Sequence to fold (504 residues):
Amino acid sequence: MAKPEKKLQDLKTRLLEVGDLNHINALLGWDQTTYMPPGGAEARGRQSALMARMAQEKFIDKKIGKLLDDLRSYEESLPYDSDDASLIRVSRREYERALKVPPEFIGELSEHGAMSYQAWAEARPANDFSRVRANLEKTLELSRKLADFFGDYEHIADPLIDFADYGMKASTVRALFADLRDQLVPIVRSITSQPPVDDSALHKRYPEAEQLSFGAEVVKQLGYDFSRGRIDKTHHPFMTKFSLGDVRITTRVKENYLGDCLFSNMHEAGHAMYEQGIDMSYEGMPLGGGTSAGVHESQSRLWENIVGRSRGFWEYMYPKLQAHFPEQLNSVSLDEFYPAINKVEKSLIRTEADEVTYNLHVMLRFDFEVQLLEGSLSIRDLPEAWHERFEHDFGIVPPDDKDGVLQDVHWYAGVIGGSFQGYTLGNILSAQFYNAALKVHPEIPDEMNQGKFSTLHGWLRENIYRHGSKFTAPEIIERASGSALTIEPYINYLKTKYGALYAL
Ligand code: ZN
Fold:
């Protein structure tokens, strides 16, 4: 019988092939959403489905199952947090999950996602929901089918939520969101009853090339490594990875709004720094990616908001921004700019929403996903339901579907279910992690005023990034912050920050 080291090597060789196929597919996806002409859509959908199916077939190969079985006693002989034991444990968990989903289904889902994305990219600017309705009905059907492969759930959304945020269920998310909502609504009400902040400085004309160059400068300063990354333009910004040495971000520019490119860059760079910070020895392995949607989002939101919308950060960065846009900003003081980038208002677009109202956007989507999956809401009625719920929660009626039900790419390129709760989990966790970092390094805010981010970045790398998926989200939260997920630090952060900006 071969030594466990030899079997582990065999396992790693096989897993690397699966990882490579998935990363090749990510490259096809990146190309599709950046430079591919529309004419390429059909073939790309087919090619992407082929890659997804091949990866799935390779992964569920019985030989991998046999190796995982044979390695069980070796795994048990090692400490829980050793790299080898963790690789075997996490691979087994994913293998057992993958076994439940037939490769043909993965291919079908992937092909449908590519076609549906293309339809959405045309339907949104045309404000035409009817162009994507049939696609979305099919997405819902496939999403239900996917959940059903896992059977034995409390709620049909549970398996899909578990994919993104391991260990969470519709009921746990609902309870958490209800608590948060109770705390948030009075803050939103108190702020939005006050006179609006003047943010006209952000809505002057900001030429695209200059926005792109400043946006790149900012993320470089934060610690995004351009020798292992790059930035390109797309419809809906995202981060993607082809290896630990190539972690890319995408952006979009509105010439009449400074905030879009700037803050989405910091957001995506937060995701990317997480991936760039993973232990290089996990390359291509199931350990070599962020551990959950919520923890991933905690990093994008931490860099985008807790750092990127802080007074200290802009004390350092604002003169540099003014140097890029002297005509637009030389007459605008930091005392005017800082409230402008933190303006709280009831608005239409989730990705542009302020920190205080943002979670209400997420809760609306989460509830719709749950209702669609359980069948209490139909795709046909979705646009109208969106308008109604939006008016109820925000007091404004979306003027169209473009900035209503068509605004987010998720349902048009993936599945319905589990796509949104991670954003709010991320907001909550961003404050919890930042607090934990401050406890060890109280000097972080002062350093930020000087443009130094390496202490914070180093703490995050040491406590979160380098571990990749070695630990589950609940494990990493406990290890890094010393407690389970709690909304308290986040509520305190919002109350302190916005209490200084507005009378609460
Ligand atoms: Zn994100």
Residues 75 and 89 are 8 Å apart (CA to CA).
